[in-house]
Write a structure and sequence with these properties.
Length: 435
């Protein structure tokens, strides 16, 4: 073996750039691996996150005043200051987001600083993300920087979700960074205008698809209702609903998008002759719009077959309703038209009891974070019992979300939960019109 091993080493020394497939004793593999690969640690983290089933939000921070500041203090002094800004940004981000959420904070590209976040689409909302980014902005802008002659620093942020599949991961990350930076800089960038054009095209050509997920009767079985879920144009950047809604919100097109979803829902109910109740998600932002009821009346006149009593408007509980002047007035008007009101994601995000107390919903939807592994967690079971007591006091029906295991169904049956939905029963699917 000694002579053979010496020959192998001489061959590697002479032809080290070639791939040589040979059988070596395991103790030598550490020093002479058959393949040498230079890996990007950022891409490794992103790949690891995507493989676990999460999405990755790419957030870019842009400092619009920096050019003026540089002209005043000089570029050399600015370079030292930039390290201070980065350190402060890193500190604030660490205080705002959990360690598990942060994939990395980096300057892989020349303009701006990017934060990559792990996002679970089932738990997170774009408003929750924006609220945290506002907190970061408030802290950064509230501080005076000695290195900037005690000036305050303005910071803007924009975000998109990583689109993978069509390109290499490095190309996808660069594209996402450019788009997020365009969102941060708004009108100053062509990319922003292109994204705004794309969302306007989707709305103009009504290019969205609605999938339906059944909501089951826990005690009797069978489908009690359907929740309608939105997807953007197939194969496009905005097929992903998180991407679609985040870009619509940042380009001020969220209200128009949600009106389109409502009209598409009315069409689907009519075409499929749906008799069960229908759940449609609405953001508090849209429910606060002055024109909402007027637009709703126009759609009801256009689709006279629609029975408002069979439709539940879901208000996502992760989004704050505080400070919305028209919100409660619109909720009252929707009820007068016959619509039911549901509070979505109860048990996650903002204070559930405050939201329920203000809305007094007809239906309370319990978030998956409460339901997941509830059979193994007595604290979660107590939380469920508490929410059921509140529902009993308000006269609300209860829907448990995110059911994935039969053991979870057993706990729901034990506590006489009204309805449930999740992958255990069925995944969202495309309904076919009845001819």
């Amino acid at each position: 073996m000694g002579r053979s091993w010496n020959r192998i080493k001489r061959y590697y020394k002479k032809n080290g750039s070639h791939l040589v497939k040979i059988l070596l004793p395991s103790k030598y593999l550490r020093y002479y691996p058959p393949i040498y690969v230079l890996r990007n640690p950022i891409e490794q983290r992103v790949t690891h996150t995507l493989k676990k089933g999460y999405q990755v939000a790419v957030i870019s921070f842009y400092f619009p005043d920096l050019e003026n500041i540089i002209s005043k203090i000089g570029r050399r002094k600015y370079i030292a200051c930039r390290e201070v800004i980065k350190a402060q940004l890193r500190k604030v981000i660490g205080q705002t987001f959990t360690e598990e959420e942060i994939v990395c904070l980096h300057e892989q590209y020349s303009d701006g600083i990017s934060l990559l976040l792990r996002v679970d689409a089932r738990f997170h909302s774009t408003t929750e993300l924006e609220d945290k980014l506002t907190s970061v902005k408030t802290v950064i802008e509230g501080r005076k920087y000695k290195q900037l002659d005690n000036q305050h620093l303005c910071v803007q942020s924009g975000y998109v979700f990583l689109e993978s599949g069509k390109y290499t991961l490095s190309e996808c990350m660069l594209k996402a960074h450019v788009q997020a930076m365009a969102m941060a800089e708004k009108q100053d960038k062509l990319q922003y205008q292109q994204l705004k054009f794309q969302i306007n095209q989707i709305i103009a050509f009504k290019d969205i698809t609605l999938l339906a997920q059944p909501i089951m009767d826990v005690s009797k079985g069978g489908i009690k209702a359907w929740e309608l879920l939105t997807r953007g144009p197939k194969g496009s950047l905005m097929e992903n609903p998180l991407q679609l809604f985040s870009i619509a919100k940042q380009t001020n097109q969220l209200f128009m998008l949600e009106l389109l979803i409502l009209e598409k829902a009315f069409q689907l109910i009519y075409q499929c002759k749906m008799k069960e109740a229908i759940f449609i998600n609405f953001t508090p932002t849209t429910l606060n719009e002055v024109e909402l009821i007027e637009k709703m009346l126009v759609l009801l006149k256009k689709y006279p077959e629609i029975i408002p009593q069979n439709i539940a408007i879901e208000v996502t509980e992760q989004d704050s309703i505080d400070g919305l002047k028209n919100f409660e007035r619109n909720i009252i008007a929707l009820r007068e038209l016959g619509f039911q009101i549901a509070v979505d994601d109860t048990g996650a995000g903002y204070a559930s009891f405050h939201t329920i107390n203000r809305i007094m919903p007809d239906i309370i939807k319990i978030d998956r974070s409460v339901i997941q592994d509830i059979d193994k967690n007595t604290v979660k079971e107590k939380m469920l019992q508490g929410l059921l007591l509140i529902a009993n006091e308000t006269g609300s029906l209860v829907v448990a979300e995110g059911i994935e295991r039969p053991e979870e169904v057993q706990i729901l049956s034990k506590h006489k939960v009204d309805m449930a939905q999740g992958y255990f029963y069925a995944r969202p699917k495309l309904l076919q019109p009845i001819t």
